[in-house]
Design brief:
Shape: globular
Strand content: 15-25%
Structural class: alpha/beta
Order of helices and strands: EHEHEHEHEHEHEHEHHHEEEHHEHHHH
Strand order of the largest sheet: 4-3-2-1-5-6-7
CATH architecture of the largest domain: Orthogonal Bundle
Radius of gyration: 20 Å
Largest sheet: 7 strands, parallel
Number of strands: 12
CATH topology of the largest domain: Rna Polymerase Sigma Factor, Chain: A
CATH class of the largest domain: Mainly Alpha
CATH superfamily of the largest domain: RNA polymerase sigma factor, region 2, helix turn helix motif
């Protein structure tokens, strides 16, 4: 008899973003199996208030403390407790009422709440890429100390989590799949003129703006390589990226005997979110099934690193280690925001990240304070680069 999924109360960090809103869809579809204990957002008071009134959490918080009075007014009379700033995010991540914390935000700001959740012994599901990229050594060390198995939410890492099973001692390599993003069929010479609107038109996935642009540069896949290195304790040299246009095979695991195990499903983030919440049980399908006869064809191609320099930069940052992945990730956030704002070209994203990385002297085995300092320094340098480039254009 299949094990039943436990009922859980969930704290969702980054509830107004793409992953957060889809996680709440999973909660609503669970028939009461999952309930909301806490919600957080960066600055979107109106959206957070709507979600709080709908899901009745015990606590909500904003990353920006200046907006706390607005949040309190929006939730007056509801009985929902409110908080803000780093302390508010940590309170949400360690709330006594929460069984599981879903880190669904973006940016390295999620690092401190994630560590706090692990220290408090909370079950943890991670969709937030940057904390693992910047401080995977700190997160995994705390997870081991607290006896927590981290549940990955990225479709690629969820696929590996499912396919690997008890086969870790026999692993040869991990194969991460990539859709190739919005410009996978563009000639290299066309990329200088592409627009943010074009970049945000992803061929298969529904994601937030930053992740969608990162998909077009394959920086998202570079971040996922580093995440996989930490989550599964696999050397970066044993993690390969394959171009898979259909986005049905979410990743593969190859074992020493030549066997390859893959996880397949429709390109819908609610599936890995639901699995992260219900693990080790599985819930009846709610989001559609992959009809292999209808899909008919699955293709795989090698990735041309000269076409995707951001992926090459991520592999380089992973090889250097220390604070270099932090710097790369921070510079990319600034570069993507500048591209979306029309300040730099699409092809400038990789150039800007490369320049910031080239000036950084990596610090090995960094502390939390060193990680946060490297992140801040890289952002400041990247912002300065953007200003100079924008003023010259």
């Amino acid at each position: 008899m299949a094990p039943q999924a436990e009922s859980k109360t969930v704290a969702i960090l980054g509830a107004t973003g793409s992953i957060g809103t889809q996680a709440l869809e999973v909660v609503e579809a669970s028939g009461g199996r999952f309930r909301v204990a806490a919600l957080t957002a960066h600055r979107n008071v109106a959206a957070l208030a709507v979600l709080a009134r709908r899901h009745h959490p015990a606590f909500v918080a904003l990353a920006d403390p200046r907006l706390l009075p607005d949040l309190r007014r929006a939730l007056a009379g509801t009985g929902v407790r409110t908080g803000a700033g780093p302390e508010g995010l940590v309170e949400a991540a360690t709330l006594a009422e929460a069984d599981l914390v879903l880190a669904a935000g973006s940016g390295v700001a999620g690092l401190t709440p994630i560590l706090a959740a692990l220290q408090a012994g909370k079950q943890l599901a991670i969709a937030n890429k940057e904390p693992l990229v910047a401080a995977g050594h700190l997160i995994m060390s705390q997870a081991r100390e607290s006896g927590i198995t981290i549940r990955p939410v990225d479709s690629e890492h969820s696929a590996i989590f499912q396919a690997l099973g008890e086969g870790r001692p026999y692993l040869r390599r991990l194969l991460l799949t990539a859709s190739g993003g919005a410009f996978r069929d563009f000639a290299p010479g066309e990329l200088d003129k592409v627009t943010p609107e074009q970049a945000l038109s992803h061929p298969t996935w529904r994601m937030g703006p930053k992740v969608t642009v990162d998909s077009a540069t394959l920086m998202n896949k570079g971040l996922e390589v580093i995440e996989a290195h930490w989550l599964f304790d696999v050397p970066v040299a044993e993690i390969q990226v394959l171009l898979h246009r259909q986005s049905v095979v979410h990743s593969l695991v190859e074992f020493v005997d030549g066997s390859v195990v893959a996880q397949l499903s429709l390109p819908d983030m609610r599936l890995p979110i639901q699995y992260a919440l219900s693990w080790p049980a599985r819930l009846p399908v709610a989001w559609g099934q992959a009809d292999l006869c209808e899909i008919a064809t699955l293709t795989f191609e090698k990735v041309d690193l000269t076409r995707y320099p951001c992926l090459q930069l991520a592999y380089e940052a992973a090889r250097v280690g220390g604070t270099m992945p932090t710097v790369m990730s921070a510079a990319d956030e600034v570069a993507v925001a500048a591209f979306l704002a029309g300040k730099i070209r699409f092809t400038d994203i990789a150039r800007l990240v490369s320049r910031v990385m080239g000036r950084h002297r990596s610090r090995p085995q960094p502390s939390l304070e060193e990680v946060l300092a490297a992140d801040a320094e890289a952002r400041a340098e990247a912002e300065e680069e953007v200003s100079e480039w924008h003023n010259r254009s």
